[in-house]
Amino acid sequence: MTPGELRRLYFIIQTFLSYGLDELIPKMRITLPLRLWRRMLFWMPNRHKEKALGERLRLALQELGPVWIKFGQMLSTRRDLFPPLIADQLAMLQDRVAPFDGHLAKRQIEQSMGGVPIETWFDDFEITPLASASIAQVHTARLKASGKEVVIKVIRPDILPVIKADLKLIYRLAGWVPRLLPDGRRLRPREVVREYEKTLIDELDLLREAANTIQLRRNFENSPMLYVPEIYSDYCSQNMLVMERIYGIPVSDVAALEKNGTNLKLLAERGVQVFFTQVFRDSFFHADMHPGNIFVSYAHPEDPQYIGIDCGIVGSLNKEDKRYLAENFIAFFNRDYRKVAELHVDSGWVPPETNVEEFEFAIRTVCEPIFEKPLAEISFGHVLLNLFNTARRFNMEVQPQLVLLQKTLLYVEGVGRQLYPQLDLWKTAKPFLESWIKDQVGIPALIRAFKEKGPFWIEKMPELPELIYNGLQHGKHLQRSVDKIASELQTNHIRQGQSRYLFAIGATLLLSGTLLLINRPDWGLHPLWLMAGGIAAWLLGWRKTR
């Protein structure tokens, strides 16, 4: 480890211990070394004993910076894994992180706008931030040109060095995983960290977020399920984003949703539909769907509509992964575990030599108990633990390109659990996926492919005779090359056989001459001639190998 990495690691350990987070270490035999090691660090006492454990955890993650805050945001959606005192505190990391100075934000905005006063472009700029999260904070204002209400998002100052320091340390730790864990290579830790690094660095570019938001808005234009606010591109830069201000109920505020008369069952079902629509129809999905980025419109509570913001992290899948995922989901919903096992082998997610029957039985053992149950009765922590154990038994490799999708699915499931625990996740998703699969393999898919590629085929049709001729000529040249290589291999094989034969003769003559020279010295020069013949045979054999 470099001195910089050691300093950062020391700071992380010091922060955790100064907030007394060693209390989270379970008192088990396997954790005894950790607890003994903690007692040795007596000069790092808990300096916040008066605070509750949940608050101490939130403050520690907040002090450590964006990478850790993101981790806390993800944990905050899993109220099935944490008691309310911890989950409520972690939820504050979604949009109530300690803000930086509003006057500094104002200076950054003016700098992004070419150094002119903020009053040139905006009225009613609010110096106190509306919300503050891990990467940026937002301030309210009004466009001077049109009078429209907007929010201005500004990147936190000096945030990049902190992110890079943490990522460097995580890379170092990821490099240790294959050495420390028996199946560490299967987890592909460096690839997973590289994928996470890419998404995190991309989030620092607000021009990219603006483009993502415009794309998502276009994908759901006039949709009753999701509204995406308008972006005012003329005012955006790498460090600043200007967006339409929206008014909605935070999706985590179930009491306010009920008070507004929101149909929570339909809202939860639409959350699942929005997720699968983004993934399979558009292959472009919002990958940071924690409750701080999701609101519900006040209008039409009987026909509720989501409002999505903060599109800094998005994901996409290629056609092969989408197809395999959709078929896997449908097979799961149909309890066709044989199909699930075969799909995992076909996609290369498990080794080709995997015993399909054993893999099928292992998947059935994990998944069968969770069907016919609402979300409220399913322990996903237990299910995930069993799935990880199954994956380890069958050497299933982690797919880095699916990590974002898996994280987003956990967010969606966590939100659904809060809104309507009785939601039947399987029945909600299955019709959509079956429809998508039919659309990919039926006549509509053929017509769509012709529409997409027809102009290209028509353009290339006059060149078809020439392409066929060139293909035939290329085939002839290729056949000649193959014949030449085959001939050379045959000649080489013959020469190798001859050289082995000469080496054998040489060894025989040399050994015979040596024995005669020792046992029959009265034979004169005959043994020497035999030995000379052996050496000559060896030289000829060596020449044949060249």
From TrEMBL:
Transmembrane segments: 501-518, 524-542
Pathway(s) where this gene product acts: Cofactor biosynthesis; ubiquinone biosynthesis [regulation]
UniProt-listed PANTHER family: CHAPERONE-ACTIVITY OF BC1 COMPLEX CABC1 -RELATED, PROTEIN ACTIVITY OF BC1 COMPLEX KINASE 7, CHLOROPLASTIC
A single GO BP: ubiquinone biosynthetic process
The organism's taxonomic lineage, starting at the top: Bacteria, Pseudomonadati, Pseudomonadota, Gammaproteobacteria, Enterobacterales
Binding annotation for ATP: L130, A131, S132, A133, S134, I135, A136, Q137, V138, K153
Annotated catalytic residues: D288
Database matches in CDD domains: UbiB
Protein location: Cell membrane
Enzyme's top EC category: transferase
Gene: ubiB
A cellular component annotation (GO) from this entry: plasma membrane
Signal peptide span: none
EC number: 2.7.-.-
Keyword vocabulary terms for this entry: ATP-binding, Cell inner membrane, Cell membrane, Kinase, Membrane, Nucleotide-binding, Transferase, Transmembrane, Transmembrane helix, Ubiquinone biosynthesis
Function: Is probably a protein kinase regulator of UbiI activity which is involved in aerobic coenzyme Q (ubiquinone) biosynthesis.
UniProt entry tagged with the keyword Acetylation: no
Classification via NCBIfam families: PRK04750.1 (NF003404), UbiB (TIGR01982)
ABC1 atypical kinase-like domain segment(s): 93-344
Gene Ontology MF annotations: ATP binding; protein kinase activity
Stated family: Belongs to the ABC1 family. UbiB subfamily. Belongs to the protein kinase superfamily. ADCK protein kinase family.
Protein's name according to its UniProt entry: Probable protein kinase UbiB
Topology relative to the membrane: Multi-pass membrane protein
